[in-house]
Amino acid sequence: MEEFTLEPGETITLAVRKHWVVFLLELLPFFLVALVPIFILSFAGGLATVNPSFAVQFGGDLTLGNPYLRLGLGLFWLIIWTGAFNTFTRYYLDQWVITTTRIVDIHQFGFFDRHVSSFLLNHVQDITTDVNGVFPTMFGYGTLRVETAGDASQHFLMNGIPAPEAIRDLILREIAALHPSTSAPTV
Amino acid sequence: MFGSFGTFGITNMSTVAFSLFWLAVVLVALYSAIAIYHWTRYGHRSPIAIPAISVHIFVSLALIGFAATGL
Fold first, then answer.
1. Which residue range forms the structural domain that includes residue A41?
2. Does the ipTM surpass 0.85?
């Protein structure tokens, strides 16, 4: 990990990204938009078959034989592809790392905008999981909310993570291992 | 519309198409360079990094090639 340095004796317990279904749902709009020109051209081609004057109004060729159409489609799909790859990059470079002493949130907001924040496990007071909706329930992903103790109480959200209950239990085990004589935080 | 932009007042359609094409290519090249920088900077230890960059470059070049057939 380049973003943070492990302390002596600290080890990484788990590194987790958003669930792959969340990624696919983020990718879906790009896929649908990429299909739009195909539907439009099919529709226009059908109209041109019925009414040849329609095609004449649009240059006479609504097929890929038209060079300007190929150019437009190529550039359009290039933009869509770039957007989709950007979504994948952000999905992959976002990460939560749970170590034996802390939780590290690595978030890529955009290019040249990367945030890395840490929460010490011994400051954790409350952990809440939330699996809400059809897809989250079917595929087993959800939100994990960690709140820290103290006057400046802060919370920490892990959205769209797989098996949030298992990760909550893992964090609780790590906290218990840090403080074997005290009780674990509330769930 | 396609192939008959002259009717809309654009007299030299091929010049416009050529300019748009190269503008898009330059922007995508710039984006790719920045994306590759981030992948190599933050995801270089991942087995996904090199395949992801390769696929991005391959698909981008394929689409640029497809668009270039319209010039």
1. 25-90
2. no
